[in-house]
Structure formats: structure tokens, C-alpha cells
From TrEMBL:
SUPFAM superfamilies cross-referenced by the UniProt entry: NagB/RpiA/CoA transferase-like, Winged helix' DNA-binding domain
PROSITE patterns in alphabetical order: HTH_DEOR_1, HTH_DEOR_2
Protein's name according to its UniProt entry: DeoR/GlpR family DNA-binding transcription regulator
Domain of life (superkingdom): Bacteria
Length: 254
């Protein structure tokens, strides 16, 4: 099998199934563990994955929206349903970029809300819902990632206020720092945080620790983390020390 083809299959496996061990990838592709390790080193050098102990995890931050939308849908829906229950009718809600925010938007149909977003897929989902007052932020369009970014987006946010921000991430470090792989989105996320009274981070189990080289914010900027699985003890302790509520889909843990 050609190296290029192996690389494609490795990335597909990581993006669909999450982190994978070298031994598992070796068995799936029918090549030696040494070959897989060389492949992982090359893919990491290209910025397409992050090697972890015994394996690797895909860097999803710059994947086209359509690809990420097909990954871990059930988990994202569970998080979205729990997050939607946190919003009261009449409130204003900021929705970040990303596929979990899109799944949350699907849960808001029929509600009396104001939704503010730079997420074009959220806009398309809610555009025909007459009960929702919809505010689309201006900015430079990132077509593949279905989002708006830049100084115009940030300027718009300085003129707005929201009761809730539902924030996406590509990784949460053990210290509670919220990370992102898409550097151009980080200033917009920070402006969203400043525009909201309360900030809830949407993070499935794969985001602990996930990936990301750019820090969006620390745990002190969060009010809640909404997830689909228990958070590892070290990260949970960091969040609790900062006064962050950990909300697990189906139940609440302080």
C-alpha cells in the first residue's frame, strides 16, 4: 500500500473513531507498527494529527465542516439537548462555530429566543423559524468551515449582549484551559466570551484533552461545561476550583 493511501486511511480512522493505538492501526492497515509510527510522525509534521502515548488523535480544528458534522453525532445530540434545557424562553443566546453548536441550534426550534451567531449552518438551520429572532454577525466568510471571522465580526460582538454563550473547543487541558486548533477563530471566541453573561463550553469526551495550540480562555471564564461523559479527575478538579459547573448529559454534577 502506498504511503499516501495509508495516510488517508489513518486520518479517516482517527476522525471517525477518535484516538487510536499504533497496534490497532497496524492491524487495520495490515502493516507493521514501525510503519505506522513513521506515518504518524509524518502526519504530525504536516499538522494533521497529534501523537499521544501509544497512538494518535486527529487534529479536527481545520477539517471542513461537512467532514466533522458526520463524527460523533449521537454524543453531540446528547450534549445539545442538555444545553438547550439550560436556556429560558426570552433569553438571548450566542452560538459559536462548529458542529455541536449546530446540533444545539436544531434543539431550539419552536422556542422564543434571540440567537446570535457567526455560524452559517446555524443561520441556515434557524432562518425559517419565525419564533426566533436571528442575528447573523458580519465578517469574512470561511466557506469550507461555514463561519464568519475577522475584525468586522469582533466589532459586531462589541455592540451586542447575550445571556448565554455556547462555546465550542478542540481541546480542554487538565488545567481547564480551553484550546483551539483554528487560530483565526480565537479572537472571535474571545469577543463572544466578553459579550455574554454566562459561558457554557460544549465538549464531548474526545475533547479531554483533545487538541489545540491556541488558548481561547481559562476555566475562570467559564460558568459551565456540558459534556456526554464524566470528566477526568484532574481536569474536573481544575474546573471545580474555578467554580465551573460540570453538566453531564442526563444529570448535573456540581
Amino acid at each position: 500500500m502506498l504511503a499516501e493511501r495509508r495516510h488517508q486511511l489513518i486520518l479517516r480512522a482517527l476522525r471517525s473513531g477518535g484516538p487510536a493505538a499504533v497496534t490497532d492501526l497496524s492491524e487495520q492497515l495490515g502493516v507493521s507498527p514501525a510503519t505506522i509510527r513513521r506515518d504518524l510522525l509524518k502526519l504530525e509534521e504536516d499538522g494533521l494529527l497529534t501523537r499521544v502515548h501509544g497512538g494518535a488523535v486527529a487534529d479536527e480544528g481545520d477539517q471542513p465542516f461537512a467532514e466533522v458534522a458526520e463524527v460523533r453525532v449521537a454524543e453531540k445530540d446528547a450534549i445539545a439537548a442538555r444545553a438547550a434545557a439550560m436556556v429560558a424562553d426570552g433569553q438571548s443566546v450566542l452560538l459559536d462555530i462548529g458542529t455541536t453548536a449546530y446540533r444545539l441550534a436544531r434543539q431550539l426550534h419552536g422556542r422564543r429566543l434571540t440567537v446570535i451567531t457567526s455560524n452559517l449552518v446555524v443561520y441556515e438551520e434557524l432562518a425559517d423559524d419565525e419564533g426566533i429572532e436571528l442575528v447573523l454577525l458580519g465578517g469574512m466568510v470561511r466557506r469550507e468551515y461555514r463561519s464568519l471571522v475577522g475584525f468586522l465580526t469582533e466589532d459586531n460582538l462589541r455592540q451586542l449582549h447575550a445571556d448565554w454563550l455556547f462555546l465550542g473547543t478542540s481541546g480542554v487541558r487538565p488545567g481547564g484551559q480551553v484550546m483551539d486548533t483554528t487560530v483565526v477563530e480565537v479572537p472571535v471566541k474571545r469577543a463572544m466570551i466578553k459579550a455574554a453573561d454566562k459561558v457554557a463550553l460544549l465538549a464531548d469526551a474526545q475533547k479531554f484533552p483533545g487538541t489545540g495550540m491556541a488558548k481561547v480562555c481559562g476555566p475562570e471564564d467559564l460558568d459551565a461545561v456540558v459534556t456526554n461523559a464524566p470528566v477526568d479527575p484532574v481536569t474536573r478538579s481544575s474546573l471545580e476550583e474555578a467554580g465551573v459547573e460540570v453538566v453531564v448529559a442526563g444529570k448535573v454534577k456540581a
